[in-house]
Amino acid sequence: MSENKTQLRRRMRAGRRDLSAYQQRLHARAAITLLSRLPQMRRARHIGIYWPIDGELDIRQLLQRFRAKHFYLPVLPVESQPHLRFKRWHGETLSFRNRFHIPEPAAGPCRAPKLLDLVLVPLVAFDPKGARLGMGAGFYDRTFEHKQLLPGAGPQLIGTAHQLQCVEHLPTDNWDIPLDLVVTEKRIYRCR
Ligand SMILES: Nc1nc2c(c(=O)[nH]1)N(C=O)[C@@H](CNc1ccc(C(=O)N[C@@H](CCC(=O)O)C(=O)O)cc1)CN2
Ligand SMILES: Nc1ncnc2c1ncn2[C@@H]1O[C@H](COP(=O)(O)OP(=O)(O)OP(=O)(O)O)[C@@H](O)[C@H]1O
C-alpha cells in the first residue's frame, strides 16, 4: 500500500532528526554556499528565514554572510487573521517561544509577507517540481495564497531542506503553493 501524508511526514521528520550534529553542519554549510551564489539571493533585500526545529536545515549563518540584508522570522497568526507575519530579526537569541515552542522575536517591525523579496521556506518533504509538504497547518500556503492568482508575484519562495527530504512525486491539493526553487546540500532544483 502506498504511504499516506501522515506516514511520509513521520518518516521524513525522523530522517532529518536522526542526522548527526556533524552531518547537520556539513549540510548547512554546503546549502548556504549554493544559496549564496543565487542571483535571487544576491538581489533580495528583505528575506524571510526560519528558526530551525526538529532537524530542519539550519541556514541561520546566512545572516553573517549577508549583513546588509534584512532578515525576518515567521510569527504565528493571531486569531483574527490567517496569515503568518514576518518580524525583523538580527540574529540574537530569543526568549519568547510560540505554542509550538519555536522562538519568535517579541518586538520589532513586521513586514507584510507580499513585500518580502524572498522567503526561505522550511519543509518536511518536497519533490523536484516544487511541491511541498509542511508540518500540516497550512501556514505558508495561506500566507502566500496570492501567488496562485498572480503567477510571478513576489516573494520568490525557496524551499531549503536536506537531500533526504526529496521524494519523486508528492500529491498536491489545490491550496498548495508551489516552491520556485529548492536548495539542498547537494543541488539546486529550479521548479518554475
Ligand atoms: N522552523 C519552522 N518554523 C515555522 C514553521 C516550520 O515548519 N518550521 N512553520 C510552518 O508552517 C510554522 C509553524 N508550524 C507548525 C505547524 C505544526 C506544528 C506541529 O504540529 N507541532 C507538533 C505538534 C503540536 C504541538 O506541539 O502542540 C509536532 O511536532 O508534531 C509545528 C509547527 C511557522 N514557523
Ligand atoms: N489557502 C488556504 N485556504 C484555506 N485553508 C487552507 C489554505 N491552505 C491550506 N489550508 C488548510 O490547511 C491545512 C493543512 O494544509 P497542508 O497539509 O497542505 O499544510 P502544510 O503545507 O503541510 O503545512 P505548513 O505550511 O504549515 O508547513 C489543510 O487541511 C487546508 O484545509
UniProtKB/TrEMBL annotation:
<dbReference type="GO" id="GO:0030272">
    <property type="term" value="F:5-formyltetrahydrofolate cyclo-ligase activity"/>
</dbReference>
<keyword id="KW-0460">Magnesium</keyword>
<comment type="similarity">
    <text>Belongs to the 5-formyltetrahydrofolate cyclo-ligase family.</text>
</comment>
<keyword id="KW-0479">Metal-binding</keyword>
<keyword id="KW-0436">Ligase</keyword>
<dbReference type="Pfam" id="PF01812">
    <property type="entry name" value="5-FTHF_cyc-lig"/>
</dbReference>
<dbReference type="InterPro" id="IPR024185">
    <property type="entry name" value="FTHF_cligase-like_sf"/>
</dbReference>
<protein>
    <recommendedName>
        <fullName>5-formyltetrahydrofolate cyclo-ligase</fullName>
        <ecNumber>6.3.3.2</ecNumber>
    </recommendedName>
</protein>
<dbReference type="InterPro" id="IPR037171">
    <property type="entry name" value="NagB/RpiA_transferase-like"/>
</dbReference>
<keyword id="KW-0067">ATP-binding</keyword>
<keyword id="KW-0547">Nucleotide-binding</keyword>
<dbReference type="InterPro" id="IPR002698">
    <property type="entry name" value="FTHF_cligase"/>
</dbReference>
